[in-house]
Design a protein that fits this description.
2 domains, three-stranded antiparallel beta sheet, alpha+beta, about 10% strand, two-stranded antiparallel ribbon, elongated, transmembrane, 11 helices, Rhodopsin domain-containing protein, membrane, Rhopdopsin 7-helix transmembrane proteins
Length: about 375
Amino acid sequence: MTTVSSDYESQNKGPRILAVFWILTGLATVAVSARLFIRMKILRNPGADDWLVAVSMVFSLSYAVLSTVNVALGFGQHSDTMTNHRLQLVLLLNNIGFALGIVAFAIPKLAVAALLNRFLNPTALHRAIFWGLTGFVALVSFICIVVLFTSCSPARALWDTSLLAEGAKCRTATVLVSYATFTGAASAFTDLYLAIYPTIILLKLHMVLWKKLALCGALGLGVVACAMAIIKCMQLPELGDLSDATYTTADLVIWTCIESNVVILASCIPTLQPLIEVILGKRTLRSTKGYQYKEDGSHLRESTKWTSKPSGIRKDDPDLTITGVGSQESILQMGQIRRTDNVTVEYERPSEHTDEGQESSTSWEGARTTDTAILATK
């Protein structure tokens, strides 16, 4: 171990790493727990998106625990302040942590795709885009892990740098940095798309402004995750600095944690409305899978979904005239977006006139009656 000054030796990013990890991981854990409680105890209809988020949370927690152990061993401090054995252990745990972090931000995107399919009931094209983009990110993220652990031959040279003097070969760090940047760019683009699409759909709906803004904010948190992915990409060149990896890669570890937990939070916040209603006393825990929501006197079942596909209103009846359509949407339900259309239908009642010597005929002279039907589109 090289002799260093006390100021240099005291430089330590470990406390900042622990603060970021446990604040964000704690928030994400609470959000995921609340989400699972809502789906399993209140609504009783857990879906694939819930299990994907739960798996993501397991990886995020594992990353936090591993990083905590690594900080205790010296991660966040300068490499030349540690013994060779300690340095090898810290570098090994750091590489394993990167793998966990990559999985932790890749899987939640699949959960967001499943959530949007459940909320918005999109067209087949947009379903294909959702799963295509998120599946692509998951694939390139897995390949990134492979690229990381195959950077050196043998792989042990990643954390035991003494093997380089014995003939171990490593690819130039530019390969890993470039591919990791590509993975981060794909992740950022996917986060942005998953945030913008529901926002565009919601802005087209006729509903109270504050509800529209609240829902756009909840479903659009992926924009924050996109920003975190971009910032993380700016930290990736630090992967190429092997001379002081335990200190220079600390910021990259922090931003990886932020990105993964923000994606998890973004996928959970839109699902927490029923629990808020229970806390405020507007709903009880006896709610069941098909619970009702009342707005403006209309009751819609939870299975009713809003879709961008044309509704099946018949217009081929010559005696039926649709004179006005108003709509109100209530989408603060867990798991569905509902749309209520108020359709005003005007028609004339037939009247029969029978004159002497003439056959009975039917005319459409008479009072005009206006009916209002409330339709729930699916």
